[in-house]
């Protein structure tokens, strides 16, 4: 499977990720589930982009993936501040899968 690193800007997956991570987009439960499924599939497919990450960074990705997943279990609705935190967890969980994320996020 090819990595999304080389997809054109108009690719539907890239557009959806950008929309989900956009602070002006109202974050929905379905968006979070889709993003977690996307990340899970990339890991299961052993996406080459992930192979370039260090073990500590991969552990951080997993930590943020787990934070986002657990937030779905414990909450039904999100206030703006919680949505921003969840968006940050998703962004960091997907670190390395997107060429638009060239620098490691601030922790």
The main β sheet shows up as:
none
**N-end to C-end Cα span:** 30 Å
Overall geometry comes to globular
What level of helicity do the residues show? 55-70%
Taking Cα atoms only, what radius of gyration do you get, to the nearest Å?
13 Å
Q: What's the β-strand tally?
A: 0
Description:
The chain is an all-alpha fold and 107 residues long. 60% of the residues lie in helices and 0% in strands.
Give a quick summary of the entry.
The chain has 107 residues and is an all-alpha fold. The chain has helices at residues 12-21, 29-44, 48-51, 55-74, 80-93.
Please supply descriptive tags for the structure shown above:
single chain; 107 residues; mainly alpha; disordered N terminus; disordered C terminus
Map the helices and strands.
Layout: H1 12-21, H2 29-44, H3 48-51, H4 55-74, H5 80-93
Helix pairs in contact: 2-4, 2-5, 4-5
């Amino acid at each position: 499977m090819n990595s999304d690193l080389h997809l054109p800007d108009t690719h539907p997956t890239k557009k959806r990720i950008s929309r989900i991570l956009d602070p002006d987009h109202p974050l929905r439960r379905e968006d979070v589930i889709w993003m977690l499924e996307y990340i899970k599939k990339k890991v299961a497919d052993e996406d080459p982009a992930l192979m370039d990450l260090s073990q500590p960074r991969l552990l951080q990705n997993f930590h943020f993936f787990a934070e986002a997943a657990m937030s779905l279990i414990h909450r039904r609705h999100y206030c703006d501040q919680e949505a921003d935190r969840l968006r940050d967890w998703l962004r960091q969980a997907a670190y390395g899968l997107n060429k638009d994320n060239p620098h490691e996020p601030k922790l």
